[in-house]
Amino acid sequence: MSGGALITRYPGPHGYAAAIEGIGTNAAALLAGFSFALVGLTLDKESVLWCADLSLLLLVAAGLMLVLTVTLTYNARRNYVSPGEYMAALEMAKLDGFPEEKLREWQVKWTDTYNRWLGWIVRAFNLGAILFLLAIASLLVPAEGPGEMAPARVAAVLLVLLAAVAELALFRIVEGGEPGGQSGAEGDPAKEREAAG
User: Fold this and answer.
1) Which residues lie across from 142 on neighbouring strands?
2) How far is the C-alpha of 192 from the C-alpha of 197, rounded, in Å?
3) Residue 173: per-residue pLDDT
4) What residue spans define the domains of the chain?
């Protein structure tokens, strides 16, 4: 196994693992709670909503995708050993006489497994966030329909729809649609070495 094989497997850019953990443990859980709370409110106020069934469908789908994000993050985190944790384990292995190469093989396997989960986490969160924003837009439309909205209400709906489009566009730009967020060479040690060599 080459000396750089392990370092090239860590997700890049730096901070990506912490960002994913924040999404999966905080943001997704909060948004899922809001989604299901709004389901209850929507059922209670169906008569004053334009299309309550559409809103319910979007809210339930958003909530489920966000709960899935939390579950995916948990499964990913089970396989993530940070470089610092790995170095500490390496020191313990030396003291115990455990083969360094075996520990390195395990770390490569764990890191590769973690990286496979990352793309699914990001996709589930982005889809959940987009569905949540679309649900909010549908909830803002009064029972009389879109044609009867005041200018301020139209502006509010358009802003929410713009946020949904921005969420989709940002995902495509930042993530490049690839698992692990490896959209380019910058910040990725493996791709930087390939580009330089």
Assistant:
1) 49
2) 8
3) 67
4) 13-80+116-196
